[in-house]
Design goal:
The chain has 11 helices and 9 strands. It has 255 residues and is an alpha/beta fold. The strands form 4 sheets. It has a 3-stranded parallel beta sheet.
Length: 255
């Protein structure tokens, strides 16, 4: 049986608070898949961006035991789909003849720059050796005090450090083909972080079939006593994000 590993990097109280929710939904939607959470030690003054860039540069020897590795935001909760996630991503690797699947085709390069999405999948035994030298070079660049001074880290159009731009440069410099077709791209889960953008859930639930599917799957579990306990026990900021989603979906929820 082929094996998939979700990889989540966490930093700070808010993101640590998503871990039990991620584990809860993963266990119900994809019990056959594994997950590992990483809280990387970091003394850099720009901890948030340093950690985000390390999403793409860090590797663990245990990943080689898996047929696929799926880095995921810890507030992006897995949802079972047909075909199953691992089968779908492996088929895309075959389609595009690459050991990874991602695309530059989502964002407008004229306004947001040339950047990959944050939903990145790879076949570790093929992919990791190919990026190893470039990843080492980029890790050394992370030692600079101001990450904005490194061209590949700084997105001049968005005027900020951009880890998705870094991923684009990592793939290109490692000699991997860049996928431009976005027709096969999906979130593959419910991203609670949308609650931090006013009105986004209302818009997505009204217009995006994927978002409605993800919500329908997640909704099946929110009246589980274990979910209610997680909701009661989490920090106020995360509880508020759930409330934003519940209101947008017209869901009457009581813990």
């Amino acid at each position: 049986m082929k094996k998939l590993l979700y990889v989540c990097f966490v930093s700070g109280a808010r993101y640590l608070s998503y871990i039990p929710f991620f584990q809860f939904f993963k266990d119900r939607e994809y019990p056959e898949y594994d997950v590992k959470f990483y809280d990387l030690p970091c003394s850099h003054p720009d901890r948030e961006h340093w950690i985000k860039i390390m999403y793409w540069l860090y590797s663990d020897p245990s990943w080689l035991e898996y047929d696929g590795v799926q880095p995921f935001d810890v507030d992006l909760f897995p949802v079972r789909e047909t075909p199953l996630l691992l089968d779908y991503k492996l088929a895309l690797c075959e389609k595009y003849k690459t050991p990874y699947y991602n695309t530059v085709g989502i964002d407008d390069p004229k306004t947001r720059g040339v950047r990959m999405t944050g939903i990145h999948f790879f076949k570790p035994r093929e992919y990791l050796p190919l990026i190893a030298n470039t990843a080492l070079k980029y890790r050394q660049l992370l030692n600079v005090k101001d990450l904005r001074t490194v061209d590949i880290f700084y997105n001049s159009l968005q005027r900020r450090v951009d880890n998705q731009q870094v991923l684009y440069h990592l793939l290109r410099e490692s000699g991997l083909p860049i996928i431009t077709d976005a027709s096969d791209w999906h979130f593959h889960g419910l991203h609670l972080g949308h609650s931090r953008c006013a009105g986004r859930w209302e818009s997505m639930l009204a217009t995006d079939p994927d978002a409605r599917l993800y919500w329908a799957r997640i909704k099946q579990h929110i009246h589980d006593p274990e979910f209610k306990k997680l909701y009661r026990d989490t920090i106020p900021d995360v509880r508020a994000e759930w409330d934003v989603l519940f209101r947008a979906a017209g869901e009457v929820f009581s813990a």
